[in-house]
Amino acid sequence: MSMRFEIRQAAPIDASAACALLRRSIEIGGKADHEGKPAVLEAWLGNKTSANVATWFASPSNFAVVAEGEDGSLLGLCLLTQAGKIALCYVLPEALRLGVGRALLDAAEQHARTWNIKKLHLYSPPSASAFFERQGYINAGKDTSCFGMESDLLWKSLEESCELAPGAARKRFCNCNG
Questions:
Q1: Rounded to a whole number, what is the distance in angstroms from the first to the last CA of the chain?
Q2: Which parts of the sequence belong to the N-acetyltransferase domain (predicted)?
């Protein structure tokens, strides 16, 4: 299945639709992570209000992007903080595995580079960790999220490396020794 979408910077006017997207993604897409733990789900959804999302989008210390479908509906969102944290990266369950999450994360990583951020980190529910690992994030192990769910702490360096993988060609303008 193919789905067309556009990645664009989020605006406070997107808050209501983004809030609905977050809640649906967590309730349905995150079911494996909160199933049987209503207190975890309630805590996870606790700050997902339209007013909070509008504040997050309007903050100059955040950069938020959304994936907008051809019909104008939001399919996903990603929020980066100036501290180098991917605070949100959610995709509607029906838009999973269509490149939406990867495109959102790429946009956030590109913006992080404009802020001279060298390393990103995030907390992921276990069900989504493999996605981030496929995008080059390293799983540093388990931690407990602020809402009481076991999560994986992941990080990624945004600095170009001069080290070569076996069989890889040396970069033409590499400044490393060797």
A1: 46
A2: 5-159
Q: How confident is the model over 77-91, as pLDDT tens digits?
A: 999 999 999 999 999
What is the domain class of 5-117 according to CATH? alpha beta
Locate all alpha helices (DSSP H) within the chain, ordered by sequence.
Answer: 15-24, 31-34, 38-45, 50-58, 100-114, 126-134
pTM for this model (two decimals): 0.84
Instruction: Please state the domain extents for the chain.
Output: 5-117
Task: Assess whether pLDDT exceeds 60 at residue 43.
Answer: yes
pLDDT value at 35 more than 70: yes
The residues facing 154 across adjacent strands are 122, 139
**Distance in angstroms (rounded) separating the CA atoms of residues 96 and 37:** 24
- Contact criterion met (CB below 8 Å) for 34 and 46: no
pLDDT tens-place string over residues 123-146: 998 889 999 999 999 999 998 776
* 83 vs 94: CA distance, rounded Å: 31
Residue type, 93: P
